[in-house]
Amino acid sequence: MIAAATAFLVVALLVSVLAAISLGSAVIPFSATARFLWAALTGGTISVEEVTQYQIVWQVRTPRVVLAAVVGAGLSAVGVAVQAMVRNALADPFILGVSSGASVGAVSVTVFGGLAGFGVYAVSVGAFAGALVASALVYLAARSANGVTPLRLVLTGVALAFGFEALMSVIVYFAPDSEATSTVLYWTMGSFGAATWGSLPVVTAVVVLAVVALRWTARGLDVLSFGDESAASLGVDADRLRGRLFVITAVATGAMVATSGAIGFVGLVVPHLVRIVVGAGHARVLVIAPLFGAVFVVWVDLVSRVVVAPRELPLGVITALVGVPVFITLMRRRGYLFGGR
Amino acid sequence: MTVELEVDGLSVELAGRAIVERVSLRAGTGTVVGLVGPNGSGKSTVLRCVYRALRPRAGVVRVGGADLGPMSARESARLVAALTQNSSGELDFTVAEVVALGRSPHLRGNSPLSAREVALCDRAMGQVGVAHLAHRSVLSLSGGERQRVLIARALAQEPAVLVLDEPTNHLDVRHQVDLLRLLRNSGLTVLVVLHDLNLAAAACDQLCVLSHGALVASGTPAEVLTEDLLRDVFGVRASVVEHPLDGVPQILYTLTDHVEGEDAR
Q: What is B5-220's CATH number?
């Protein structure tokens, strides 16, 4: 059943990616899209009058759609891991202060400059650095003699996120121009609009490695979800596993936030949706959730750029519009019980 | 494989406070040893050292003569299984999935269970009477059913030693008796923390009594459970009588301050 679902989702993902590349404010026929992609991948030729469409397909939409798929997969997988790691149904990839840290990093670079060596990627690098610094601070602040307990981690993350947001507000408030404000908006709302072929490889590699590593730890996550005492009796050093998970999830989330901002809701809801359908076992969830998340976010991004074209709706509006009713319906129908009765 | 469990000179400090001081006890091969004592006497702490949730400041825990201290968590989990308190988790795994997790210390990474291991899990579920629940979500079970599922998981772990922290909590009388009978018949070396002294007397070959982190008595239930000990350690007035059916000592507590005919004492 899982093999069939996996195959179905892989096909759905390929179809979705193709559809999302074809559709948009300028609709390009599927056949032409497929031909352009084929030409781009194999070094084939196209006619002169097709160059504009080719540019749209290959330079603008393809990197954007691929980024949407990568980030959708990454946020979903990381969401699953974070929820198991902190044993909290309300946890998402950003709960550990990553997104607000990234915003501080991005805004700092925008306002104060620096990192000029990275050229057009300076702001992304700043965001990534901010995300990692924030994660490290949360981890160190939550640490005690008994290791890092889940609740301390969540509370510290929430508390420090407020701190980072305050810091960001101060920087924006005293910033001489309005560029800082738009940077903040971009990072807190999230968008795939800035995707380029140049920014794609790093985030893709990080997300793929993270998903594989998390899938490889599936049984450990199963055990961890029963609490540290049980984990010890089943031969899992909960503190060490949590440390490893923290590094994986922080780096992956940091890389995603640096390229596309903090896209909310996906990392919170996709894990639950998938668990409702396939059960709690992480070996299954960590295959289905990334695939489903990728398909979901590709469609969300498509909808966001066609409903009020040529303007774009923020992604969060679409994720909430689609996700909230689906989630509540499924939760009520299946008697979903995360957190007991 | 069933072997002896030995706790030798165990001392534990938490946040600079001594919780357990130089506790030594022994559970012979295949025997059931009960750990009793008032709240806060260090029972759970001793147990946590045995299943490696806690590192003692001093002392060793040996299973079949082998020191657990230098072993990896996985290695010791193949020898010692535990039923801890509040350990049912929050995700809705099926019963069969929970029991299968008992195999995790024996498996590398995500490798699936072998046919033998699946059969082993089925047998474990049968032993505690939860086979019919195999495909139910653990979160939909009653407290007693959940407890039995976790015992099945511990049995599927194929340990030499089984430790349990107040396993009869939240169970009705019948399930309490069933569970303790199961422990007796498991053939494993068992160390169990119990609050109910009458159940402990009926179920255990030996009792160890902890008070303020120190071992104050050990021996057979008849040797340990005296009226003096109940008064001094537990602070209760009680009479100890022989059970009319099987002769084990049973305690009759009294709530009255002044007992008739006791003036002579």
A: 3.40.50.300
Any A CB within 8 A of B78 CB: yes
pLDDT digits (tens, 9 = 90+) for B114-128: 999 999 999 999 988
Domain residue spans in chain A?
A: 2-334
List CB contacts of A288: < 8 A, sequence separation 6 or more: A2, A5, A6, A9, A274, A277, A278
State the amino acid at position A173 in one-letter form. Answer: Y
- B116: number of Cβ within 10 Å: 8
Q: Do A279 and B76 touch (CB under 8 A)?
A: no
Q: How is residue B168 written in tokens?
A: 């009869």
Closest approach of A56 to chain B, Cα-based (Å):
43
Say if residues B100 and B110 touch (Cβ distance below 8 Å).
no
Q: Examine the pLDDT at B218 and tell me if it is beyond 90.
A: yes
Closest to B206 measured CA to CA, from B33, B35, B30, B43: B33
Backbone φ, ψ for residue B11 (5° rounding): -130, 135
B14 secondary structure, DSSP code: E
CA B258, B260, B264, B265 dihedral sign is: negative
Residues from A in contact with B at Cβ < 8 Å: 84, 87, 89, 145, 215-216, 218-219, 222-223, 225-230, 232-237, 275, 279-281, 283, 335-341
Which is nearest to A289 in space by CA: A135, A87, A83, A98?
A: A83
Residue with tokens 């030409």: A39
For chain B, the C-alpha Rg in angstroms (whole number) is 19
Strands B58-63 and B5-14 turn out to be antiparallel
Interface pTM, i.e. ipTM: 0.88
CATH pick for A2-334 out of 1.10.3470.10, 1.10.150.130, 3.90.1150.10, 1.20.140.10: 1.10.3470.10
Distances (CA, A) of A28 to A37, A296, A317: 12, 22, 26
Other beta carbons less than 10 A from residue B114's beta carbon = 12
> With 0-12 CB in 10 A as exposed, 13-18 as middle and 19+ as buried, what is A163?
middle
CB-count burial class (<10 Å; 0-12, 13-18, 19+) for B65: exposed
Residues A212-228 pLDDT 10s? 999 999 999 999 999 88
